[in-house]
Structures are given as C-alpha cells and as structure tokens.
Design goal:
alpha/beta; Rossmann fold; 6-stranded parallel beta sheet; globular
C-alpha cells in the first residue's frame, strides 16, 4: 500500500489532518505514507510528525502551470491510495488527485458546489456533515479509504525538536520572560484569501485587550503572526503605551510554536495559529464570527469561544465562494459587534 496525503489547502487544515495521519500509520505500519504540501508551515509540521516516509513540497501558487503539470505527472501511478485533506473543495485539488492517478482516491462529498469543483473525480467518498469537526471528517474518510475500524479520535500533532525548544528558551530570555510570569499569546491575523480578512477582530480592540491584560491581570502579552502580518501587528503596538507587550518574530512556524508553548493562554481569531495552540494543548480563547464552530473549534484542549452567536451565524461553509455578509444593518456584525469586555471576560473565565 502506497498512500499519498494531498494537503494543499492550508496550515490549519493540514494540522487538523494529523490525527488521521496517526491512524493511517498505527493501523498500516508497513505502508508507504507520503504527503504533498505547498506551504512551508505545513512542511514544518509534517516533517516533525515522524509519521511520513517522504514529504513532497511544491509551491503551486508561485510556479507556472506548466511546471505544476510536470510535477504532478511525475507522480502519476506511483500511489495505490490518495486522500484530499478535508476541507479542500476546489477543482484544482481534485484535478491534481485525478492526474496523480491512484486507484483509490478519497475526498469528502461536499454539500455545496461539489460537482462544479469536480468532486466526482474521486471514488472513495463520505458525505460532508456540518455537525462534525474537520478532524472527525478526516478520520471518517481515512477509515473508509483503508478499512479501519476504531472509535479513536487522537489529538493534533505538532512535535517540536530540540532546536525549536532551544531557540524558544533563548528568545524568551532575551525579552526577559521570567518563569513565574503570566504570559498571554495573541494572534490578531488570519488568512486574507477569499475575503477572509473579515474574520479578523478589529486591531484597535486587540490593542485595548492587550492594555487590559497587562494592567488588570499583570500579564506579559506576546503578539504572534507571519511576516505578512507585520503591518497589522505594528499598527496595534503603535496604539499601546504599556510595558510588557512584545512582537514575536521567528524564521519558521516551528520556532513560533516553540515560543507559543510558553503561553498560559492563547487568544486568536479563527486562524492556523488557533489550531497550533490546540496542538500545543494551550488554553485557547477563539474569536469566531462567520465560521461554523462545529468545524474548527480548538480540538482536544481547554478552550472557550468568544462569539455573539447571531441568528445569521454561521454563514461561512466550505466552498470556493469568497466570504460575504448579507446583513443590512452592520456588515460582519458577528466580528464588529464583539466587545473588548466580552473577550476579556472569556480570558478570565478560562484562566
């Protein structure tokens, strides 16, 4: 059995497949298990799992269509089984799976826009269930693909190596985080693709929250985010006139995760770092507006959700359509109406 995990849809999605990856390895120790990824952050996570034989990286977003086609065709007929990580409801991902040509090609049958996105090119399928977590969908898909019978639901896997841990220790010493400090991590960003920037809580509210965390809880606050979020985070920090607030910058996701592990609580939008927080077993405050929380709540860790629970929520489901809001009073009220006080109370609750 040669299995290819096609994990192209993003860091959080790939991380939520790691419990299923563990199941594949546990129940098929003799199988060859490879993964195809296109984000460096996913590469950081998957290469540290110890569950893969080979990790294939190709940046489909930057390379030409001709180069991408050559790369995919070079994999043709090399695998007996392939699986499109859930969610990956895009025709490009289904076409890649079809061209690679495994005899058994697994993917979820989506409730929305499945046919338009060539879902029929896959031949091992389960029907999407809006009541299930992404992890559970992946587990069901894998169990059907390779005939596993178990009720196991493992946690997310992001293993840090000695270099990651050593880096974090040095970094935390440099910014003078003491062992007895209360440390709260914050991620104010999220993906901007498909208009998902509207899943972000407002920057000025993150600034106000940080101010209260330092003054009222005597906490050190660490802001996390990728280089593409520098402008966002620098703007937040410019609004603060308090000590004990730091911007964490590292060279890769694993080093970021190693620093995150020191946090007592992690506050985040619906983002990949929210799932990294869950993988690290951190207490997590998830700020969630339009997304179905059944899909993406922090998996197997102590968490709380800051949400207005509006009558129109959730309105975002898995399809290639950009995020949109049909409200006529306040667009994206689910995020814009969420107060600093509400999120602060959720932090105190989980503490």
């Amino acid at each position: 059995m040669k299995i290819l995990v096609i994990a192209l849809s993003g860091i959080g999605d790939a991380l939520m497949f790691t419990p299923a990856l563990k199941l594949i390895r546990d129940y098929n120790p003799e199988a060859t298990v490879d993964a195809l990824v296109m984000y460096k952050g996913v590469e950081d996570i998957y290469e540290r799992t110890g569950l893969l034989d080979n990790l294939l990286y190709f940046d489909f977003l930057k390379e030409s269509k001709v180069a991408a086609l050559r790369f995919v065709l070079a994999l043709r007929k090399k695998y007996s089984h392939s699986i499109n990580v859930y969610p990956s409801n895009r025709k490009e991902y289904n076409l890649i799976s079809f061209l690679i040509g495994a005899e058994k090609r697994a993917a979820v049958s989506y409730l929305r826009m499945d046919f338009e996105n060539l879902g029929f090119l896959n031949n091992v399928r389960i029907v999407e269930n809006d009541n299930l977590h992404n992890v559970q969908e992946n587990l069901l898909l894998v169990k059907k693909l390779i005939n596993i019978e178990t009720d196991e639901e493992p946690g997310l896997i992001f293993r840090l190596n000695d270099d990651d841990i050593s880096f974090a220790e040095g970094y935390l010493n440099k910014i003078q985080i003491a062992k007895d400090d209360s440390v709260i991590g914050v991620h104010p960003g999220c993906s901007t693709l498909k208009n998902h920037i509207n899943r972000r809580w407002e920057p000025e509210k993150f600034a106000a929250l940080a101010s209260r965390l330092t003054s009222e809880m005597n906490a050190k606050v660490l802001f996390f985010g990728g280089p593409e979020e520098d402008e966002l985070i620098n703007g937040i920090l410019s609004k603060l006139e308090v000590a004990g607030v730091f911007r964490v910058k590292t060279s890769n996701l694993a080093k970021t995760a190693a620093v995150m592990k020191r946090c007592n609580i992690f506050v985040s939008n619906d983002s990949s770092l929210m799932h990294v927080s869950a993988a690290l077993k951190l207490k997590t405050v998830a700020i969630i507006g339009p997304t179905n929380t059944n899909y993406i709540h922090p998996w197997k860790t102590d968490y709380t959700i800051a949400s207005l629970k509006l009558e129109c929520s959730p309105c975002f489901y898995y399809s290639p359509k950009p995020l949109s809001c049909k409200r006529e009073d306040i667009k994206y009220k689910c995020m814009k109406g969420l107060s600093v006080e509400r999120v602060f109370e959720e932090v105190k609750k989980i503490l």
